[in-house]
């Protein structure tokens, strides 16, 4: 069936559920208990992403689900859409609904959800309950700054305490 | 209040010398950095991230949990992180005594006091501080860096707000309840 391709510098924990045709890029971190399920089409994950525990990325379509670079996917988030660009943050328990896409530098706030089949433009921030959205003008400097250091930290600490799948 | 006994199958839980009951189906990473105070129950599918500890050569624990706590099924305990003075680090997550965390809740708080009840499906944001004797209602989403004062009832979503106060007897009520829950959690 599907093939799993892990880039040499990616960190993928053993205690994860990965099914089907999945490609994981360099420096990407997949924490314990995350699920990446390529049910019908492939999932292609770029470099420098962090996928936290219990996050679910699922592709129920024949088209590939592409995730760009330097995205942060937090605990219990659910990605069912067609893909996303770079430097997005999908916060705790947020949902990227079916057929939808995220641009670049977007934030889907905690427990928020995109509408089905919408293309969220760049720099959009979804937040609050009742849900509202705004466009950010600052160009996401905090994420660029923290994310790099976060990756460095995880690359140092994660292999000490967890079993990592060796790249071939 | 009279509550019923919860009977579990003996092989499912590991009981430590101090009376902690930890489900074998829970997901615990970095167990050497986790402190359980005693008589604490960790239910199945609960995730505790002890591996995300302070950067540098410290022997500080990543997750500290007091006595008579209950960590519900599918809950997640994850230390918070930030960059401080240019260095990135995770910081310890401290939980007091008699804390009940409900099913499917995600906790990234900096500290939680004693006698706190957190409902089901809650999200406690990074570096939130919950003081003693609080009630977090089901589905509440506490924003990052929030400080919840003692004796508060917190409810609603994103961000949750303080909606009411609890009486002075709360400490006693929650203590009795957590002790009662522990004594009625027995193997069959």
Short description:
Chain B: Its main location: cytoplasm. The complex is a heterodimer of chains A (168) and B (188). Chain A contains one helix and 20 strands.
Summarize the SSE layout with pairings.
The complex is a heterodimer of chains A (168) and B (188).
Chain A: E1 4-6, E2 11-12, E3 17-19, E4 22-24, E5 29-30, E6 35-38, E7 43-45, E8 50-51, E9 56-59, E10 65-67, E11 72-73, E12 78-79, E13 83-84, E14 89-90, E15 95-96, E16 101-102, E17 107-108, E18 119-120, E19 124-127, E20 132-135, H1 141-161
Parallel strand pairs in A: 1-4, 2-5, 3-6, 4-7, 5-8, 6-9, 7-10, 8-11, 9-12, 10-13, 11-14, 12-15, 13-16, 14-17, 16-18, 17-19
Antiparallel strand pairs in A: 19-20
Chain B: E1 6-8, E2 13-15, E3 21-23, E4 27-29, E5 34-38, E6 41-42, E7 47-49, E8 63-67, E9 70-71, E10 76-77, E11 81-84, E12 87-90, E13 93-95, E14 100-101, E15 106-107, E16 111-112, E17 116-118, E18 123-124, E19 129-130, E20 134-136, E21 141-142, E22 147-148, E23 152-155, E24 161-165, H1 170-183, E25 185-187
CATH class of chain A: Mainly Beta
Looking at the overall shape, the CATH architecture of chain B is: 3 Solenoid
Which strand-content bin applies to the residues of chain B?
35-45%
Compute the separation of the termini of chain B in Å: 23 Å
Number of strands of chain B: 25
> H/E element string of chain A?
EEEEEEEEEEEEEEEEEEEEH
Function (chain A): Part of the dynactin complex that activates the molecular motor dynein for ultra-processive transport along microtubules.
InterPro entries (chain A): DCTN6, Trimer_LpxA-like_sf
GO cellular component, one term (chain A): dynactin complex
Protein name (chain A): Dynactin subunit 6
